[in-house]
Amino acid sequence: MDRGYNVTLVAPGNFTANSELYRSIPQIIVGESVGTSIIHDQELLKKFLNEESNANLISKLFDPKLYTKFYKIYKRVAEEINIDLFICDAGMNSACFDLAWQLEKPVIGFASTSTFFSAPPYKSDPLHGCHVTMENESFYDRFKCAIISPFKPLWTLMSLESELNKQRVNLGVEPYWDPRSRMNNILFLVDTFFGFELPAPTLPLQQEIGPILPDTFPNLTPELDSFLNIHPRTMYFALGTNVFTTPQNIAILLKSCLELINQNIIDGVIWATVKTNITELMSFSNTDFPISNILNNNFPHFHITKFAPQFAILSHENTKVFLSHGGASSSHESIYTATPTLVLPIMGDQFGNAEKLEVAGMALKLSKFNLTVDDIVLKIKRLLSEESFKKNAERLSFVAKLNSKRKYRAADLIEMVMNTVKYDGIKDENGNLRTNNNVLLRDWITANKRMGFIKGNYIDVYGTFIILFLALICGFGYISFIVITFLYKHYKYRNSNSKSKKN
């Protein structure tokens, strides 16, 4: 927008009107707040957040019938404001990508993790029972994660695509089965960076441009500023804006906070409650565990708030440790501010993020299925007492601060696509540029993607080499066998003749 382009946000919830940073960006609101328009069953969501994740359960969270609803909304908006380029979130947003291709308009995707674009053996995911890196795993685990695990969600995905294809046909959109097929022709901007992200081969059309952070952040409230100034060893506790855990887990976490304060390991806790069910939590209150006092801000070493200026809290010198769910933004902010982190992943990419932070040496992780006060206290002690956690956090912070400038690179890439359309696009009868997304960024697409799976991976070449090599070995073996047989027979004949002459 600073470069003279007209930008419109189409999304559920009200992002821009109440924002000091992005108020100038017009928004078309198409549903309720984040997380509620796509996830249609709140009871199922609660089950998903509190139980073991699997592909079948994840698929049930999303109503595939919303495809038609959002396709029609996007199409109406595109006609009203004459969209020249789509920027689509990669998560459950097939309608956005399909409409761009249908209207022959350029499209750019964005995501918060590159795991989705990278196949094993380079990357794997804890959601599939694997680790983010298989470097030190056994042959069995590497075989399972490279060959077996990728097929686990296949049937679920096929069922989902089957439903989407029915709706595509009704809307006049060409059906397809491979949701990753079009990604080979689309520029994807990924909000991550090496250091946090584990190194792996990437394609030219997959550009890492994170961490994307604002230039300014909300300041501390007077109450928070005062609390932090008188508590030099504060822990900040927040589980993000879209997830929650069981009241039992929250009670264990709060008991751990009290124990850490009693042991003088920390002297203050700031807790952003956000989606925590306070009513359910109150049932755990008793004389030994004064939850009501904590929630009413009557406990001197706790500061409770519904929402908090997270970056400002993490930036304060008295915030020594962060108890987080491990969301992408929270992970980036903890790295940027060099804050050692204890991660309690709840869903999605948070499990992978927790492992990445742990591999980077600035965090430890918890399990939502096996929370204990002793484990939490022990890990907070380690995070605060072992110098390596803070040192690794500071090392990554330097990398994050340099990479945070890449949002300007992202804007450059978007402009490059717009400029390419000027030369590769064709004007229709109304003077609007139309483009073929299959060939739009052909200069960015590696040759192996155009050559197909067999030629692109040189399977035909290597296969021929192996056949020739085996044929050569077999031929050499056969000739050797003939020669040895001949020599043996010749030797046996000569030996027989020698014996006959002696006789």
Layout of SSEs?
Layout: E1 9-11, E2 27-29, H1 42-50, H2 55-60, H3 66-81, E3 86-89, H4 94-102, E4 107-111, H5 139-148, H6 154-170, E5 187-190, E6 206-208, H7 222-229, E7 234-238, H8 247-262, E8 268-272, H9 278-281, H10 291-295, E9 302-305, H11 310-315, E10 319-324, H12 328-336, E11 341-343, H13 350-359, E12 363-365, H14 373-385, H15 387-403, H16 406-424, E13 426-427, E14 433-434, H17 447-456, H18 459-502
Parallel strand pairs: 1-2, 3-4, 4-5, 5-6, 7-8, 7-10, 8-9, 10-11, 11-12
Antiparallel strand pairs: 13-14
Organism: Gigaspora margarita
Protein name: UDP-Glycosyltransferase/glycogen phosphorylase
Family: Belongs to the UDP-glycosyltransferase family.
Brief characterization of the structure:
The chain crosses the membrane at residues 461-488. This is UDP-Glycosyltransferase/glycogen phosphorylase. The chain is an alpha/beta fold and 503 residues long.
